[in-house]
Amino acid sequence: SLTHLTECFFWGGDRSHGENLTVVTHFILLGIPHTEGLQNILFPVFLLFYMCTLLGNLLIMTAGLHTPMYFFLSNLSFIDVCHATVTVPKMLADFLSTAKTISFGGCVAQMFFLHLFACTEIFLLTVMAYDRYVAICNPMHYLTIMNQKVCLLLAGTIWLGGTVHSLALTGMTIKLPYCGPQKVDNFFCDVPPVIRLACTDTYVIEILIVSNSGLISVVCFVVLVVSYGIILVSLRKRLAEGRRKALSTCAAHLTVVTLFLGHCIFIYSRPSTSFSEDKVVSVFFTAVTPLLNPIIYTLRNEDMKQALNKLFGRKVTKVSGSIPATG
């Protein structure tokens, strides 16, 4: 029957051995803890965060800079917009709803895109560290090394890597049997809280998650720290003005890296254990960090501020030019 085939698909096998089990069709999101009665306050706050995230990152994407660094920065802004859109609109809708449910397919889609954009961003931050290394340690050959073909190849590679990572993690999750518990202890579907609902031993899957997500985060973080250690050593030989500008750019990148990878290491290095702080960290990760990225980069980078000033200047000029003279 169709029901039997559906069960076989979700369970990854034939459940015809007399087991009276039910296939879960939806999950219930428990949301952010200790926020009962605060929905009318939280909704406009997070809506404002989300709108500012969209505006700030779209401004960076349309700033009109054409260097390798800003090619990657535009990719980062695009990922941040997508990353926030995966979780925040659903969270906003749940603030206004009593039934905080999500379909099984919707939950799977949320997990897939969440890990796609998160892993791609980790790889992108690592590539951006390499870009800064080349720019600071080998400035005479920077544009030759980081030419358009190399930038496109690196961008394609990080997106491919994020896709493979997300497919592997989501594939392992949906192959588990889900037969009863439906309450996801978070405000969005993520792999650690979802696999805790499986009706089977998930120890092997948890080890694979640590090996996958946790290891990627830790290794990339170590690579980034080593890269910036080399950069800082090389800056000792620079003149004060060049050193100040390079340090400002590196500080902005390191701040973003710390905020982003700190969450990944905190959550995915021990998926079998749940802390009350997990939800607070997840809120910051999904709703606040994508907003902080454009603020950090624009406030600490003179080139970006000049580009945005030119962008706004052109818009003001066009608006003023379209108004007919009077008097």
TrEMBL record:
Membrane topology (UniProt): Multi-pass membrane protein
Gene3D superfamilies, alphabetized: Rhodopsin 7-helix transmembrane proteins
Ranges that cross the membrane: 41-60, 72-92, 112-130, 150-168, 215-235, 247-268, 280-299
A GO term, aspect molecular function: G protein-coupled receptor activity
Subcellular location: Cell membrane; Membrane
Keyword terms of this UniProt record: Cell membrane, G-protein coupled receptor, Membrane, Olfaction, Receptor, Sensory transduction, Transducer, Transmembrane, Transmembrane helix
A GO CC term attached to the entry: plasma membrane
All copies of domain G-protein coupled receptors family 1 profile, residue ranges: 39-297
Pfam families: 7tm_4 (PF13853)
InterPro entries registered for this protein in UniProt: GPCR_Rhodpsn, GPCR_Rhodpsn_7TM, Olfact_rcpt, Olfactory_Receptors
Primary site of residence: membrane
Family classification: Belongs to the G-protein coupled receptor 1 family.
Protein name: Olfactory receptor
Species for this entry: Podarcis muralis (Wall lizard)
